[in-house]
Amino acid sequence: LEVLTYESCKQILMSPRNNGNGVYQISVGNNKFIDVYCQMTNVSGCKGGGWTMVMKIDGSLSTFNYSSFYWTNKNFYNDYAYGRNGGLDNREYKGSTYWRTAFKEICVGMKYGGNFRAFSFSYPASSLYDLIADGNYRQTRVGRSQWKSLISGSSLQRNCNQQGFNTQVGSLLTRVRLGFVANQENDCKTPDSYVGLGAGGSYRKQWCGFPHTSANVAGNLARCNADNGNKNVRAMAYILVR
Question: Cross-referenced Gene3D superfamilies, in alphabetical order (predicted)?
């Protein structure tokens, strides 16, 4: 009896085992296997299927804020049927795929107001953990317009325009684990706006004369002369890899 093993959802996508979106077993070496959710059908904006789910983040909750230990450890969250099996649902999730799955591409998606939007970009790595856990800033080259496209009517300030992993390492004001931050001054010292996920910071009582607005962990936050007005959009965010 021949037993076929696969190391990724992409391999399964091209195999006879492909039964559409759902949970599959993949090999992680040393004769060990893990259950993962595979998005086999096309994800609009992310160029086809074969994506492995890594994280699902609710912007209205604090589970995965910037300071959460889930970004820097190898502990899973809801990595069982309740959190894993629903695919692009609203249940928060961090799989062992965060530290066990190598990839060449990343798909970032956000769902807000019933609309799901996503884009993908090339960024080969041995795992998402290796890109984020050390806290070092790593630049991506996605583009301001693509980040803004995740949320309809999103808003950002016009300067700074820093994007990538662990943005604003030296700032206590606005930081995201993955996303795009901006500022009204012509520097990146005190950004007040972002589109991204894993957000956090030490927020002031007022922003440019406006009362303090509690930040969201995933979505769009904007104050202080942003290009489409003030925003505080809490979205459901997703990270998939391939």
Answer: Gamma Fibrinogen, chain A, domain 1 (3.90.215.10)
Q: If we measure between CA atoms, which residue out of 115, 119, 128 comes closest to residue 55?
A: 128
Identity of the amino acid at 15? S
As a whole number of angstroms, the distance between CA 152 and CA 55 comes to 22
pTM over 0.90: yes
Q: Where are the domains of the chain?
A: 9-60+68-136, 144-233
- What's the one-letter identity of residue 197? L
104-159 tens-digit pLDDT: 999 999 999 999 999 999 999 999 999 999 999 999 999 999 999 999 999 999 99
Is residue 43 within 8 Å of residue 51, measured between CB atoms?
Answer: yes
> Per DSSP, what are the bridge partners of residue 233?
220
Q: How far apart are CA 90 and CA 156, in angstroms?
A: 25
Euclidean distance between CA atoms 19 and 12, whole angstroms: 9
Q: Is 54:241 a contact under the CB 8 Å cutoff?
A: yes
